[in-house]
Amino acid sequence: MTREEIKSLVRRVVEETEVIDIHTHLFDPSFGKLLLWGIDELLTYHYLIAEAMRFLDMPYDDFWGMSKREQADLIWETLFVKRSPISEAARGVLTTLNKLGLDVSKRDLNAYRSYFESVKLEDYIDRVFELSKVKYVVMTNNPFDEEERRVWLEGRREDPRFKPALRIDPILTDWERTSGIMRSWGYDVMERVEPKTAAEVRRFLNEWIDRMKPVYMAASLPPTFRVPCDEPASILMEEAVLPVAEERKLPVAMMIGVKRSTNPHLRVAGDSVGKASIDSIEYLCRNYPSVKFLLTVLSRENQHELVVAARKFRNLHIFGCWWFLNNPSIVEEITRERMEMLGWSFTAQHSDARVLDQLIYKWAHSKSIIADVLTDKYSDLAETGWVVSEEEMRRDVRMLLGGSFEEFLKMKL
Ligand code: RAT
Ligand code: ZN
After folding, report:
1. Reported pTM
2. Which ranges in 166-277 belong to alpha helices (H)?
């Protein structure tokens, strides 16, 4: 095959391959208002809030005092009307509208709103899954969120397209406050983590694993996260989370490198990035060889080191180009780096979608870059005389888009 032929085949195969989206913030309809969708949610995505604020001279609190619709109007005006929507997140809104069949050249926000008002949520969910070719998404389920907790306690109607993940950030990153909440729920825990407290946290995790049947336990962690050390996060990780992970055969997903509230006025849009300790990840993989770790790090500077760590530990599976890395230039770089050192044993991307409709653009954009990288790689192989069949290509691409993740889950350690 010529390079052009390889390119068009790869494009078609990547486009047609179904995706498993292993980390999102989406919810199925039984969670009611927690499931976000539609144009106003798309426009008020926190990535876009941060970008719009750079052009606005209003006090932060005035922005937060506005209704969602007013915020959406303002962001539309600021990022789409007064300037061209060139950033990745702004472009994403347009890709989404376009793929839904709306005419972006009209720039008619009210027409887009009317479209979303006219669709039925159930049908719309089907449409989004169809357009994005996502087989299922993994949610982020926080038992410390009051609204969400209620749904779990009352019992949810399961939808196989939305799989649970037990999010445990409050335990690892805010133990002072979380221990108080857990005490009020009847767990005999103390602020200082001693054996009884660790046992109670294990009891809590086990109860929620029974209730949620999650795919994994997960936490977003700050760049300062270290194990082993005498911080509650480290002790709770080793004394509570990992023993439960081992016993329940449940992977632990860690997303490391988020500096929360660098600018608190920006609220949900105010987090930043810092470099993580890959030594700590290696320590965990080495000392807990029967626990599976799913890992992504937020700092670009950490990427190479993390890939090397993954070469050393088969209980470490790396995934996604997270948040500030989910931009074409960086996705391309990271995907190449991983492919060159890990072959197919990683998951190229997750969407981190917070708004259902974002599945459409996040996957379209990522797939296009993955296809570019694969075109180069298959062309390099072709130059040696190695021939890859379409079927083999489909097998390979499936690995990158969720197949390797599922194999990792099944692997016996
Ligand atoms: O990407 C995001 O939307 C972030 O705000 C975070 O949610 C991050 O992905 C996380 O899961 O902590
Ligand atoms: Zn996330």
Report:
1. 0.98
2. 169-173, 175-184, 195-212, 232-236, 242-248
204: Cβ–Cβ under 8 A, 6 or more apart, which residues? 182, 187
Contact 220 CB / ligand 1 (< 6 Å): yes
Residues 6+ apart with CB under 8 A from 393: 9, 10, 13, 378
Structural domains present in the chain: 3-35+135-165+251-410 (3.20.20.140)
Q: Which 3 state secondary structure label does DSSP give 319?
A: strand
* Structural element, H or E, at residue 351: none
pLDDT tens figures, 95-107: 999 999 999 999 9
Task: Assign 150 to helix, strand or coil.
Answer: helix
Characterise 372 by phi-psi region: left (phi > 0), alpha (psi -120 to 50), beta (else).
alpha
Which of 21, 24, 25 to mutate for ligand 1's pocket (most ligand atoms within 8 Å of CB)?
A: 25
Identify the pLDDT of residue 390: 98
Band of residue 18 on the pLDDT scale cut at 50, 70, 90: very high
pLDDT at 255: 99
Q: Which atom of ligand 1 is nearest to the CA of 326?
A: 1
